[in-house]
Write a structure and sequence with these properties.
Layout (H helix, E strand, L loop, with lengths): L1 E4 L4 H12 L3 E10 L5 E4 L11 E8 L5 E2 L2 E4 L5 E5 L1 H4 L3 E5 L4 E3 L2 E2 L5 E8 L7 H12 L5 H4 L1
Antiparallel strand pairs: 1-8, 2-11, 3-9, 4-8, 4-11, 5-10, 6-7, 6-9
């Protein structure tokens, strides 16, 4: 699942995911008015140090557009760009996606890219795709990565 919703209301977002995916979710983590100029390297939302293995759905609501760069990009397993979401597409909307979608955010400048980030656990058991399991295994072998470097 990768969808762009014309809403930034958290209740509407969660209700939409639950109905569309036929799941019951628990909102487990939020980062409000989050900004990070250096962007985010390619990752799945299980966390670079495997600190979010419970995460099954994520959402990003873009609250500002007065900056340069900061594109949200979905990538394949080899980190090749496959879909770019520009700030004009994303602004005052919410990008929702499931844990099987690897992504990155380009660095931004000349302003702040402010987002609300949401991460859900599913009450219903959802098997992780093999690509995510491989990512988790790889991260077990890496030196400690600070969560703020990935999130």
């Amino acid at each position: 699942m990768i969808e762009l919703l014309p809403s930034t209301d958290i209740k509407e977002i969660q209700d939409y995911i639950e109905k569309k995916e036929n799941v019951k979710l628990i909102l487990k983590s939020t980062l409000l008015n989050f900004t990070k100029k250096k962007g985010h390297p390619p990752h799945y939302d299980t966390g670079g140090s495997n600190h979010m293995l419970w995460c099954r759905y994520s959402a990003s609501s873009l609250l500002s557009n007065d900056y340069e760069g900061g594109e949200f990009i979905f990538v394949d397993e080899n980190d090749n760009d496959i879909r770019t979401i520009t700030k004009d597409e994303h602004y005052m909307k919410t990008l929702i996606f499931d844990v099987g979608n690897k992504h990155k955010v380009n660095p931004h400048s000349n302003g702040d890219r402010k987002v609300n980030l949401y991460f859900w656990e599913s009450v219903t058991e959802i098997e992780l795709p093999q690509c995510v399991n491989d990512y988790i295994e790889k991260n077990k072998k890496k030196p400690e990565t600070r969560s703020e470097d990935i999130l």
